[in-house]
Each structure stands twice: as C-alpha cells, then as structure tokens.
Amino acid sequence: MTHHQPRKKTPDAARPPDASEVVGLLLAAGGGRRLGGRPKALLTHRGRPLVEHAVGVLRAAGCARIHVVLGAESATVRARAELAGCVLVDNPDWAEGMGSSLRAGLDSLTGTGAGAALVSLVDQPGIGPEAVARVFAAHRSTGSLVAAAYDGVRGHPVLFGADHWPGIAATATGDRGARAYLRAHGDTITLVECGDVARPYDIDTEADLVHLE
C-alpha cells in the first residue's frame, strides 16, 4: 500500500497572486488629537464603535478579506470592537500620521496574493457601501488606480492595484498618505463619481460629532 504524503498547504505569506482579489484596507489608527484625544476607532456610531461600522461597510461593498490598521489605544479597540475575521495590523508609529498607517497596511498585504487594496478611512461614516462598491467595481488589474470623486473632486475610498504599492509606500509620509503618489499619476486614475450616494465629511473636531448617529 502506498502512503501519500499530505500536501502542505501554501501559507498565506506565499499565496499565489490573484489579480482579481480586492482586499479592504481600513485605516483606523488615529488618536483624535482635535477630539480631545479620543481615538476615532472608538467613537460610537449607531450604537457600536466606529471601526466596527467601517468594517461592515467594506464587507457590504464586497471585500471578503479586510485588514484593519490600529494605533491609538489598540488594545482597547481590540477589546471593545467586534472585528472577527479581520487581520488586525498594529502601527506603533501611528502618531506620525496617516502615511505610516498606509505603509503598515500595504506591508501587511504584501505576499498575500491580493491584486488590489481598497483603502477607506475610519472617520468617514458618510461614505457607505454604495460608494465603496462603485470604486470596487472599477478595479481591472494589478495596475489599477481608482478613486471616488465628489462633484469631480477626488476623495476616498481609493483603490490601489498591487503594482503601485511599493511606490505609494515610498512616498507616504506624515498625514499626506498617498496624495503625492496620486498627484504624480493623476492621468492614470479612474475617477468614479459618488456624490449622489455619499457624503465625504471627516470626523475631525467636536463640531463634526453631529454626523455620528
């Protein structure tokens, strides 16, 4: 009788590329400096932490895999928010700004075989599944660059094909995130109008808290 060796499973780190897979990347590390130091991920929206709401939006838009970048009070966020099924990425350098969180998130996706990252921000609850799904649907390849637009002005969410990750990571500093990279590649970005289905406000200050439900 021949004994077959069990086939080793391919670890995630060496997953073969799937150009069609879009992974949600939620940036939720901010400390809410202008909110009196309340981490944005923990603000309450519809009875749950804002980070939980934002994950739900990415799921509803079609992202089967979601990576969440945490920073400020990450242990408390893990304890309070229901984030089962998500890959949680700690960004020890979160205080440097959104750029460091974007770098940490893209780094966590490298080698997973994903074809694109659909990047959303935790503090934009006015952007729901309809807008995110439109950006998702515009994905074509690992060379895709897609952004939501509001009355023609580029905003979030944005989709970065894997070909762009190294260039974005190299230029993402401070609070600029991918802005410099997107400016340099403006002629290759597909803009998807979402102003009819979403409102792109940020929850940055005490006055903005009126947007939470």
| Low-pLDDT runs | 1-13
* Mean pLDDT rating: 90
Helical fraction equals: 10-25%
C-alpha-based Rg, rounded = 17 Å
Q: What is the number of strand segments?
A: 9
Counting DSSP H or I runs of 4 or more residues, the number of helices is 6
For the largest sheet, list the strands in their spatial order: 5-4-1-6-8-7-9
Largest sheet: 7 strands, mixed
**Overall shape:** globular
Return the string of H and E elements.
Answer: EEEHEHEHEHEEHHE
Question: Would you write up a description of this structure?
Answer:
The chain has six helices and nine strands. By secondary structure, the protein is an alpha/beta fold. The chain has a seven-stranded mixed β-sheet with strand order 5-4-1-6-8-7-9, with helices on both faces. Strand 4 (66-70), helix 2 (74-80) and strand 5 form a beta-alpha-beta unit. The chain is globular, with a radius of gyration of 17 Å. The N and C termini lie far apart (66 Å). 43% of the residues are buried.
What would a concise description of this structure say?
By secondary structure, this protein is α/β, with parallel strands linked by helices. The protein is built from 6 helices and 9 strands; from the N terminus they run βββαβαβαβαββααβ. The strands form 2 sheets. It has a 7-stranded mixed β-sheet, with helices on both faces. A two-stranded antiparallel ribbon has the order 2-3.
Secondary structure elements and their pairing?
Elements: E1 18-28, E2 44-45, E3 48-49, H1 50-60, E4 66-70, H2 74-80, E5 87-90, H3 98-109, E6 114-121, H4 129-137, E7 145-150, E8 153-161, H5 165-171, H6 179-184, E9 190-193
Parallel strand pairs: 1-4, 1-6, 4-5, 7-9
Antiparallel strand pairs: 2-3, 6-8, 7-8
